[in-house]
Amino acid sequence: MSKKPTVQPALHKVIMVGSGGVGKSALTLQFMYDEFVEDYEPTKADSYRKKILLDGEEVQIDILDTAGQEDYAAIRDNYFRSGEGFLCIFSITEDESFQATQEFREQILRVKNDDNIPFLLVGNKCDLEEKRKVSFQEAQDRANKWGVPYVETSAKTREHVDKVFYDLMREIRARKKEENKTSNGRGKDKNKKKKLKCCIL
Amino acid sequence: MDFDSPEVMKDFPGLYSSEKKKGADNDYNDESEKTTKKDMLIGKRKEKKDKKDKDKGYAALEGESSDEASPCKSKKSKTFKFTKSKDKEKEKQKEKHEVTKKSRPKKSEKPQKGRKGFGPSKQIVGGSSELADALPIFGVDLEEACKRGRCHDGIFIPLPIRECVDYIEAAGINFEGVYKISGPKNKVSQIKKLYNNRQVVHFSEYDVPTATSSLKMFLRDLPEPIFTNDLLIRFEEAGAILNYNTREKHLKTLVESLPSVNRLLLGWLVVHLHNISLKKHVNKMDKQALAQALNHTFHVSSRLLHALLLHQEALFPNLTITKYYPPLDSGSALPDDPVIIEKELSKLESLLSQIHWEMQNGHISKTREEHLWEVQRITTELKRKLKKFAKTESSQPDQAKSSQEKQEDNAKDELDNTKDELDNAEVQDQATVVISEEPEAPKLEQASDENKLEEEKEIHVEEKGDCSGILKDQQRSDSEEDEYTDSEITSTDSELLEECQYFDEKIVTMKIKNNLLKELIETLMMNINKEKMEIGEYQRQILNLKRGLPQRPPYKKCLKDPNSFHEVQTLLARENHMLQIKKLHLVRQVMEQTEQCIDLTAKLKYTFKDIKDQKIMQGKDITTKTP
Ligand SMILES: Nc1nc2c(ncn2[C@@H]2O[C@H](COP(=O)(O)OP(=O)(O)O)[C@@H](O)[C@H]2O)c(=O)[nH]1
Ligand SMILES: [Mg+2]
């Protein structure tokens, strides 16, 4: 007997983080609906689901597009907790947004309590090369330091848009397989940690 | 089985406190106490195990906890009998929690089976039983219950009440003995548990008595009666007034001084019970019978409850019972009409903020998180739809409006709807019942409308969004042959002209009354001030005397023996008490008569006045309030 296809396709939960205006929504909409919106409209929180073929396997992706602003920090934490993978976006045209990625990384690690959480550093708006403020090397160094991949994208030209989502999903999938392989003991341990955390909160 | 032995009462003081007086519906709370030997044993074993486990650090892996306030009983338990001792009872109480854990999953499974097309078809909210423990909906302060069991259409009534009422209005209105016949205890506590667990309840899988008993249980479990401890006695007093108009006036004042949450809930229930009574020929429950079936639930006399039902139109004019449609879930088809989308969006936002709030309070579970993503997804989808619509409609901006008009049944509704757009209840609420003081014709004079708004300002704020739907004219014509027939309002003719004249008269008499009442208040205030000054004067005199004179010899000296002293004292106290009561009665009579006088004077003055004059007057001081 070969593998039976599961009734319900695997579901991977991806969260977009980064300062306001870096292109989180633009990337999400480009990936979801192949569309690019020129005008900027701040997001509070939006969630999308899409069925895709990941290396021949049908999977579902849940994308949560969050707000960059601090106002929604409390809401964001509720989502971070349930995220399985993170795309940390900055705009290569804005150094501030690059600096902010450090803060986001820390927030995620704090909430997830897991250094190996699937995570990609994404430099967006790479179509605006002439306005570049963050060098490729600079960003690559930070990614190396964190032990995560660095990819440059353009939500406008769709360059590497699919790539960042697919790469992240592969990481999530690998991570889940690994978790399944390791005995239940580890899973229990993790559960316990979670519960303890809840109590503290 | 002797579960109702006094020992139970000792161990659980207050458990039966609200039930002591009643015979008919001593319901479900005792249910929680009936734990079986078997359960107890399990409980004991579990407790021991728990202690060991905790040391090992496995405590967190124990099964789901559950609502401590009403642990449910496993079905089997009925077959076991045992004689319990006081000690056992105590143990049981300790172990209640554990026992519940054991039996809970069984309970919650049941209603999930064979669900019929009522509400969301998917059990999305589940498992977060720690929420039921920490933030139950039953048995907590009313405002808190409204927050926890939130109706996301902006109507601040606890979800269990809302859904019970909806179901009873739909399925129970023709049920003989509705509200009189109690539902099975185990089912009622099952419903309570489902609500506390934030699970979906499908009353269609139960029956009318279960729904009515659940509603009763909710009200009885409230820590404070719906009339509030402060006003309860005054309500009773007002309900006992014999004169119809005076009684109505007093009740109205009291209803208006209730906290808005209580007022809305009371109105909702009174209007609902009134609706039930309209079908008394079928359901055999007239207002009297309903009052008797429910007065203990409300913690009041049946006389007061009956009075409220009789005066419901005056007390809660324009209050509509709107059916609650929960926010959309992933199973539901998304609406296309932008107006409906807006409404759905506001419900979803409300739901989202509630989930976030619960999570921020530390109630996080896998199902809760799933739910959050799902609700967020539907919200996003609807927002996209709305955006698309806005784009395509920018060329024909009128369509949104016309589609709204489609939903409206008459001009009056539209007026209300545009006033409180966002918070408005579902458009599907067309089928719901609307109660209004008079059968209103669409072309009411603006003046009378405004006047009403003025009068009902408070209630309007609370009940915004309640006014969509069909006006039910038969409300009035169908209404009971009340024992108090001297109702001043008797307009059943809906001829427009008469309507206008009627409102004219009403306004003018009210204006006159207004002035007279102001005069009355002035004179009363003057009297009060005079008396205050007198009191001050006397106090000063007493002080002066005390300072000047030596201490008064004690009374004891004048009496021969302490016994007679006591006798005299009690006699005097009794007499004083009776005089106090007499005084209260007289004061009330004086006030009633004064008010009647004012009524009559106003009517007299109206008949003498020229209508044109009045119209000018009415235009001038439309804003003056009736005290
Ligand atoms: N040129 C260019 N503009 C972009 C790109 N991504 C986003 N934008 C623009 O940047 C602005 C902010 O994008 P948005 O997705 O709303 O940012 P968010 O706040 O991170 O969601 C919008 O005006 C987008 O049109 C990109 O890759 N290239
Ligand atoms: Mg955005």
Automatic annotation (TrEMBL), chain A:
Gene Ontology CC terms, in alphabetical order: plasma membrane
Keyword Transcription: no
SMART domains: RAB (SM00175), RAN (SM00176), RAS (SM00173), RHO (SM00174)
One family name in Pfam for this protein: Ras
Membrane topology note: Lipid-anchor
Intracellular or extracellular location(s): Cell membrane
A GO molecular-function descriptor: GTP binding
Composition skew (Basic residues), residue ranges: 189-201
Keywords assigned: Cell membrane, GTP-binding, Hydrolase, Lipoprotein, Membrane, Methylation, Nucleotide-binding, Prenylation
EC number(s) given by UniProt: 3.6.5.2
Signal peptide: none
UniProt keyword Coiled coil, yes or no: no
PROSITE patterns: RAB, RAS, RHO
Enzyme's top EC category: hydrolase
Domain of life per record: Eukaryota
UniProt xrefs under CDD domains: RalA_RalB (cd04139)
Gene3D superfamilies cross-referenced by the UniProt entry: P-loop containing nucleotide triphosphate hydrolases
Family: Belongs to the small GTPase superfamily. Ras family.
UniProt protein name: small monomeric GTPase
Source organism phylogeny: Eukaryota, Metazoa, Ecdysozoa, Arthropoda, Hexapoda
UniProtKB/TrEMBL annotation, chain B:
Biased composition (Basic residues): 73-83
Rho-GAP domain sequence ranges: 140-328
Composition skew (Basic and acidic residues), residue ranges: 18-57, 84-112, 403-422, 449-466
InterPro entries reported in the protein's UniProt record: RALBP1, RalBP1-like_Ral-bd, Rho_GTPase_activation_prot, RhoGAP_dom
Record-level Gene Ontology MF annotations: GTPase activator activity; small GTPase binding
Annotated region described as Disordered, given as residue ranges: 1-125, 388-492
SUPFAM superfamilies referenced in this protein's UniProt entry, alphabetically: GTPase activation domain, GAP
The keyword tRNA processing belongs to this UniProt entry's keyword annotation: no
Stretch forming the signal peptide: none
Biased composition (Polar residues): 392-402
GO terms of biological process kind: small GTPase-mediated signal transduction
Alphabetical keyword list: GTPase activation
UniProt cross-references to PANTHER family, sorted A to Z: RALA BINDING PROTEIN 1 RALBP1 (PTHR12783), RALA-BINDING PROTEIN 1 (PTHR12783:SF5)
Protein name in UniProt: Rho-GAP domain-containing protein
Organism name: Rhynchophorus ferrugineus
